[in-house]
Amino acid sequence: MGARATVAFVAAGEGAGQSLDEAQVGPLAPGEDLRARLEAAEAAVRRLEGERDRLESMVVRLGALAAQLDADELVRGVTEVARDLTGATVAMFVPAERLAPMGTTMVVCGAEQVGQVPEPARTALLSGALWRVTPLRLDDTSSAEAGAGPQAGYGSLADGRPLRSWVGVPVRARHGEALGALFLAQHQPHGFGRREEELAQGLAGHLGASLDNVVLFQERSRVARALQETLLPPVLPKIPSLDVAARYRPARATAFVGGDFYDLFEARPGVWSLVIGDVSGVGPEAAALTGVARYAVRALASELRSPARVLSRLNETLLGFDLQEKFCTVLYGELRGSAAGLELKLANGGHPFPVVVRADGSVAELEVRGTMLGVLPGAALDEHVVTLAPGELLVTYTDGVPEARGPDGSFFGTEGLCRALQSAAGHPAASVVATIELAVVEHLSGMPSDDMAIVVLGVEPGRDGADGGRPGRRWRGLQARAFRRRQPA
């Protein structure tokens, strides 16, 4: 036969992409047809291609499972891969008592073929797999344990045939704790060999490390959530004759807290403190510093009578933390009732100027000047006193409002804020906050934004009654009664 027949050989590994010809298929037996030999070789190549594709699919599945943060889904996925790779009739994961990750339960893959579910913990041999270093392999349970069968915990198929071949491998965390065991079962004796043992051991190692990561992630998430709850903006208190509303919007949709903060609290009897601030940067580092600033202001406000002195001491506190190029802007004010309505004494540590909306609808910035905090000692800070009459508003915000940049590169700016506030006079504080936020979001048009906080404080219009429609008198009366209740009996 002078003609040379060829067939493409595309199996993975050495020789892939070469040609298989008459010389490579070897000598023919007497009467053997070359075409039949080549067709058999082609069939072998197709089987190898199928095996390659199956292995590639398993690699992709395992890669995706490594990112799985749900323990049950992770266990089920790896157990299914173990069954598919080894050709097992049934694959199981059995969690270790008290050591299994949160939420992890027993998983049985191939349960549709099972009549009686195996119970490895009930068998003397399989239960030992949890504590072994090397895989456990039982070639035939009928000879390994006298009287073994479904009643001994090995289980059986739906047609009654017992599961006779087993491989069991411990699933361990990084530090050696047994999280459970991975089991493979076949109804035929001697169904597993060295290859299946190694595959099961490798998959058990992958599962143990991944479960360790899930537990670690869950624990860190729990700790982070607990810390975040201490940093979240507070629920604003109800203050007589005042209407207060706030909105906090972090830069990242996945973040609960960031670099902006605000607070409203009673500093001393009859005196309330308002603070709004912004720490440079975003994310957890900025959030941690907001906690320092917010709680330091609370502590300082109870002993100092001047807003400028509170911010000066806060500056010293922040400098003591060695912030390494991080800084903070803070607007701080003290609120007292007056005959005219509400008196505010404000100090500003480099923060955007607050805006006042008067009863006649006019809008104006309050130029309360001062230097940012946490940069240099001896911050220059002025104090400014403003009075709000009934129906008037004080609007405070962080730089995420004026510095919101639209798709064309334009800033929202103070001009945009004043436009949004032109019709705010007489409106509830919550409505004003929502109006500002909506205007900023529309200006952004989907562009990334900075953290944003808004606090609006308004003096409620006077009501008929004993207070004569004068909120200052009503507030002072309530304060006096509250102060008397604090006195010792």
**N-to-C order of helices and strands:** EEHHEEEEHEEEHEEEHHEEEEEEHHEH
Tally of helical segments: 9
Computed over alpha carbons, the radius of gyration is 37 Å
Unreliable spans: 1-19, 147-151, 463-489
Report how far the terminal alpha carbons are from each other.
Answer: 120 Å
Q: What would you say the CATH architecture of the largest domain is?
A: 4-Layer Sandwich
In total, the number of strands is 19
- Name the CATH superfamily assignment of the largest domain: PPM-type phosphatase domain
Count of domain modules: 3
Characterize the biggest β-sheet: 5 strands, antiparallel
CATH level-3 fold name of the largest domain: Phosphatase 2c, domain 1
How does the overall form come out from the CA principal axes? elongated
Q: How helical, in percent, are the residues?
A: 25-40%
Mean pLDDT comes to: 80
CATH domain class name of the largest domain: Alpha Beta
Assign the structural class, choosing from mainly alpha, mainly beta, alpha/beta, alpha+beta, or little secondary structure. Answer: alpha+beta
Q: In which order are the strands of the major sheet placed?
A: 4-3-9-8-6
Descriptive notes:
- This protein is α+β, with helices and mostly antiparallel strands.
- The chain folds into 3 domains: 1-67, no CATH class; 70-231, Beta-Lactamase; 233-486, PPM-type phosphatase domain (Phosphatase 2c, domain 1).
- The protein contains 9 helices and 19 strands.
- Strands 4-3-9-8-6 form a 5-stranded antiparallel β-sheet, with helices on one face. A 5-stranded antiparallel β-sheet has the order 10-19-18-15-16, with helices on one face.
